[in-house]
Write a structure and sequence with these properties.
Distance between the termini of chain A: 28 Å
Number of strands of chain A: 15
Number of domains of chain A: 2
Strand content of chain B: 5-15%
Distance between the termini of chain B: 29 Å
Order of helices and strands of chain B: HHEHEEHEHEHEEEHHEHEHHHHHHH
Strand order of the largest sheet of chain B: 2-3-8-5-7-6
Structural class of chain B: alpha+beta
Helix content of chain A: 40-55%
Number of helices of chain A: 12
Largest interface: A-B, 59 and 54 residues
Oligomer: heterodimer
Number of strands of chain B: 10
Amino acid sequence: MLQIRPIISMLMRSKSGPILLLVQIILSVAIVANASFIITERVSLMSRESGIAESEVFDLDIYNFDDGMDPVSQTKRDIEIIRNLEGVKAATVSSMTPLSGGGWASNFSYGTSKEDRVDAANAPLYYGDEQMIATLGLKLIEGRNFYPDEVLTGGSELASLLIVSKAYAQETFGDESPIGKVMYRGEIGNQPMKIIGVVERLQGAWVDNNNLERGMIINVELAAAFNRILVRADEEAIVGLKEAIPAALHKENPNRVVRGFTTISEHRNIVYRDHELMATVLSMMVVLLLLITSLGLAGMVMFNIERRTKQIGTRRALGAKKRDIVSFFLVENYLICITGGVIGGLIAVQLGQQLMALYSLPKLELFYPIATVAGLLVLTTFAVIFPAQKAAKISPATATRSV
Amino acid sequence: MFFYYLDLAWRSIKKTPFLSLLMVLAISIGIGITITTLNVYKMASINPAGERSSQLFALRLMSQDNDTWERLTPQITYQDAYNLRKSTIPVRQTAMFRTGLAVQTEDPNFSPILEGVRVIDSDFFGLFEVPFVYGGPWDKQVDSEGGYKVVISEEINQKAFGGVNSVGKSILLNRKPYQVVGVTAQWNPSPKYYDVNNGAFNDSEQIFVPFSLAPIEEYESWGNNNSWRHEDIRTYSDKLASEMHWNQYWVELDTPAKQQEYQEWLSRYVEQQQRLGRFKHPEAHGDISDVDKWLKEHNVVPEDNKVLVGLSVLFLVVCLVNMLGLLLAKFLKRAPEVGVRRAIGASRLQIFSQHIVEVGVIGFCGGALGLLWAWGALYVLSSKFDLEQSLAQLDQSMWLIAPMIAVSAAIIAGLYPAWRICSTNPSIYLKSQ
């Protein structure tokens, strides 16, 4: 029924065409499988949730260059000014902006003595006040927030309380509740900080670092000449606040520069830009590659039909149905595709291993070459079926006429 | 003869417009993708130091304790930077870091702007060949004794002084008056190799102030501050005396002998510091890397780019195989015609070269169209992703490289079909006419 044997013997007779097609399919499978694997990997990186109300939160920098300025009282005044503006839902001084690619991170340890000291994983640090949770829109799932009188204004050495992300708590203490645990910076006994709360999710500033999910909040309102402030407001109010905030701050003290006003969503776009670029270029490549392969295939089939006009006519004269002619071309195509797909899949896995070794890409999953071959089978069906139907229309008379 | 073949090629292309178009399209898309990724790769990996690359060295010190960091870091401590400046071996040398200052002029209507500032020694300008429009670097004396001198860029000069020669005038940085001694012309090396901490492709600083002012003016560091141990740093002098890595250091050593001499001097420095109780790592040493090595070590060219170039070359191969198949189909269809030409006296070589010329023409068209694709792709990508200007522009060499790759690739693809057609026996085709 499927006439595989005569097709194979025919393919063996004029080898060059089918071999070229085979090579093309092998390479296509190898490229498409690896490219689509990288694409999905990048897309899944980009779709990780930050736990933050990204479109409602923006950051700004205040740089005071007034010599006589007292940072502590100035910072307290500034944050009050911003909070009292219309449209501002919450605001806090912060050591960094989420997803911005720059900020603070550190290592902590815990234990009772030098001997049983355990080092916890590196974590991104948000120094801020009791409004940090409200500003970022985080979800407190255990323990409590800072009380306003627990927040100190000044340098980072004032730190004493921590609110950690669930990811950090789980990585450090497993299923045990982290509430009440005391963490130290470096040596045991050095700058103790007690964990009082856990938030469900809080990402840090570096999206390519494995500390990303381990964000924590520390009870210090940093006060210096250069301060970063995070503000939460309704999306519609943000445009107006870009004008209102500098105006209000300059009215209080003109000797400063106020700049920034980038929302976390905008930071997200910037920080993931390289990944998005890679995914876009690769998608472009995959689409074009499939286009070229199927166009090339269609061209080849058309040429083959012209060359085999007599053969087709003879077969029709001998009783072959139109259906048989179409299925002949389709089976021929599937044979080449599957052979190419198997070899291409093997090469794809090899290529994936090379890429993995050279460029620290994760291991290629088998799903991708298999899906690529399946996709190619569908696509080539379309590329073959239209010229093949044209071929089926060849009248048997053509064959008898010129032999 | 060549022009006759060109004419023949054109006729043959016109005879099978669909197939020819397919071939041009295939090769042009392959070339377009390859040129796009190659261009981004090339622009990212350019060595901005040019021929001075082998004379400029970034300096690193392994000053940490054992069981802390295992590798050299791109920065050094302030105390080491301060000590290294005493060596007389380098032709030029500079310690530096990035900071930010509020800029004002004596004009009260000028609203203050915050600018990235580089804190440097006067050798910086000679070392990195920074061009000047007006004036020049400050005196060497300022490097040791301190002094409120500043070099500004043309851009700042435009904003603050309306573009006139401002040498001798004064500008306010954080409300302190600094005397302008020089105005630099446009200078923005890409990658920004002299400081890889703040992103290798961002803009260079517009204002330069003396390193010797750092302890007095307490400039904050706008870059990475890395500590390998916990230190209680509360004041600026704590920071200056700490083991924190936050300064960069570059030296110019013009001969191998000097490089050797400096290496030995560095080892003696490390030994001296070890006697003082620092540099406790068993592999403690000083390292100098020239620009080439420096760029490679810091992976200034992202690995993504290499993967893309690799995949796009494979893509081009697919396009060529595709073209090879189509060419074979096309040429073999013309076999009867070739049979006649052979019968009336055309040599195999003539038939062969005729077909190679035809393939070359297709390749050239594909290359030209491919350049257009590449230009369009770069334009779309750079507007969508806001790429740095330097990465997104089509490099001049690509105008030559693209058609060259296209034509030679097409000819390689055409060799087999051309050989097949010229080696067919004419009698077969003559018989069946």
